[in-house]
Amino acid sequence: MNITENLKDYEQVRGLAIQSLFEIIEQSSEGTVIVDRDANIVWMNERYAKRFGLKSADEAIGQPCEQVISNSLLRQVVRNDQPILLDIQDTPKGPLVVMRLPIHNNAGTVIGAIGFALFDELRNLSPLIERYLSMQAELASTRSLLRSRQSKYNFAHFIGTSAASLDVKRRARRSASAESPVLLLGETGTGKELLAQAIHGASKRAHKAFVSINSAAVPHDLLEAEFFGTAPGAFTGADRKGRPGKFQIAQGGTLFLDEIGDMPLPLQSKLLRVLQEKEFEPVGSNEMLHSDVRVIAATSMDLEAAIKRGEFRADLYYRLNVLPIQVPPLRERLEDIPALSEAILEELHSQHELDREALVLLAQHAWPGNIRELRNVLERAALLSDDLVLNAAEIRAAIGTFSPVARNEVKTVEGETFAAARARFDRELIAATLEACEGNVVEAARRLGLGRSTLYKKMVALGIA
């Protein structure tokens, strides 16, 4: 058999296949219509004609397709030479699932279009529709969960223009552009979680989840499952499907570990592995999961003292303490109280204001509970006051146990000049800071807010070895 005969056989088989396919679809479909290059109907089967109220298909021949099928898109198919494979076609007797295809001659030129009405009852597509709706529901749920785990705060929410506040915000902004762990140090109520959310919100991970877990708030025997999740049926009472841990939920985002100092030692070693190897095993599983999470830890505990007591791993401390940020207590930034008070009252949707004596009193309290205590005092005073301007007496009553700020008495030497007194103060301050930093000049310069070279010059001038 030569090539010419092969081609004839191919064309014959192809033609029969096309004819057979047309007959199968035409017989099994709810209707078929064919239009020419001007979108005029040249053929329509009887079932389709009756659906549109025609007595016979002959009545449709020669008419524009839109005159018979009011919202037909066959003209668009002819014009654009592009099929519309699945669509919903509204008809007087209910919707149809339709397919529209262009028709070409042997030269490849569009000479018309054909439309098949595949289903007249959409329930035939119910498995596909159900799967689509299920996927849509899962997607909506995931988006909702992600929205609920977006950071709520940015750096503007860390209120204050004192030197201490500005230094904290400067260091926090710098850490946002890095991927290294951040360690937030400070007393309870100073705003460590707010800063953690602000760092996340300013980082390249901001579009992913911010997940927090408080090591002190979860029973120790459940902490590992909270962190790393559980495999299906890992232990009695465990979820049959398994349960994702915080590291899995925070994947691609930020995990905030609050009160890291209260984490039990066995879990500390597992956390260290995640930080170093970027992988972990869920409880009850042998499968190793990859972790892409930025960790921000916070504590009100003296971790160096905890290390000496054997309560905190030194290697984990060094791994977390890459970017340390010391969040100052409110008593060390009392000049921020007016702005903080205004912001808190606004957040409480209160119309109250503070008079001058009230602000003076607020600056005299040591605030052991820090900003959280300040908010509590202002909320209580606003609720109990009959006036819109809060006075000192109302603030004093709201504070309860008053803790006056410790004021260092100025040490004076008889006959000492101002210059000599200033030099003595500088000498004592620098010497005390160096002692606190165990002779580390770089750390002492950071705490004093000086450049390293500036501190060296002052040490030489003041005779500090």
Gross CATH architecture of the largest domain? 3-Layer(aba) Sandwich
The helix-and-strand class reads alpha/beta
Rg value: 38 Å
Count of spatially separate domains: 4
| Envelope shape | elongated
The percentage helix is 40-55%
The average pLDDT is 86
Percentage of β-strand residues: 5-15%
Largest sheet: 5 strands, antiparallel
Tell me the CATH topology of the largest domain. Rossmann fold
Low-confidence stretches: none
Number of strands: 14
Helical segment count: 19
CATH class of the largest domain: Alpha Beta
Enumerate the strands of the largest sheet in spatial order, edge to edge or round the barrel.
2-1-5-4-3
Q: What labels describe this entry?
A:
19 helices, Rossmann fold, alpha/beta, 465 residues, 14 strands, HTH_Fis, Beta-Lactamase
Protein architecture, described:
By secondary structure, the chain is α/β, with parallel strands linked by helices. The chain folds into 4 domains: 14-124, Beta-Lactamase (2-Layer Sandwich), CATH 3.30.450; 155-234 and 242-326, Rossmann fold; 331-399, Helicase, Ruva Protein, domain 3; 418-461, Arc Repressor Mutant, subunit A. 45% of the residues lie in helices and 14% in strands. It contains 19 helices and 14 strands. The strands form 4 sheets. A 5-stranded antiparallel sheet has the order 2-1-5-4-3, sandwiched between helices. A 5-stranded parallel sheet has the order 7-8-11-6-12. The chain has a two-stranded antiparallel sheet with strand order 9-10. Helix 6 (163-176) packs across helix 7 (192-201) and helix 15 crosses helix 16 (392-399). It is elongated and about 120 Å long. The mean pLDDT is 86.
